[in-house]
Amino acid sequence: MVNYKVTTTVFGERPDFKEPRKILQELGRDGFGVMMDRFYDIVVESDIANFFPQDKEMLEKVKKHNTKFFVEACGGEKEYTQEVGHKDMVEMHKPFSIPEKARVEWLGCMKELLEEMDISDEAKQEFWDYCELFSKHMVNKPTNLEAHMSLADHR
Ligand code: HEM
Hints:
Layout: H1 22-43, H2 56-73, H3 79-83, H4 89-93, H5 100-115, H6 121-134, H7 144-153
Helix pairs in contact: 1-2, 1-5, 5-6
Bound molecules: protoporphyrin IX containing FE.
The site of protoporphyrin IX containing FE (HEM) has 21 residues, from helix 2, helix 4, helix 5 and helix 6.
């Protein structure tokens, strides 16, 4: 059984995470590419579709980059570093206003994907745990409560 837990982001925290290994070993590079294609099919049907380019060619580029990043994060060749040359995901996501709600929806897409895949539960769990923690780094818009509290600090 895979535990698809989602813990709440504390705005600004950068939790440690462990890069997964099993998923790429089980799928191989080609299978991993198929998985990422499917991820984006799910994303474009989701409530965060509006974050992503509507233009097919632009979306293909995002997909390609994201696939290379994940391959590298999962212990594969340094495909992303070689092609894009940097790896600061916090900076990369800054132009987009990403609240916790968008992160939770993104994780929902990932859960849907993993649930339909034929790999071991261990591989799914390891990948999920990485995504669950690493995605917290991408949250760059505080909730209203957090915004009120930070204002209150300055009053
Ligand atoms: C573990 C979590 C995540 C990882 C590893 C990740 C990684 C990436 C990577 C590698 C790219 C492509 C960067 C490039 O073109 O060089 C990308 C693009 C993007 N990501 Fe994420 N991401 C994550 C979570 C999220 C979340 C939660 C959102 C919220 C909606 C998001 C929104 C976006 C958007 C909008 C783009 C497209 C940028 C563009 O148009 O070029 N990401 N992400």
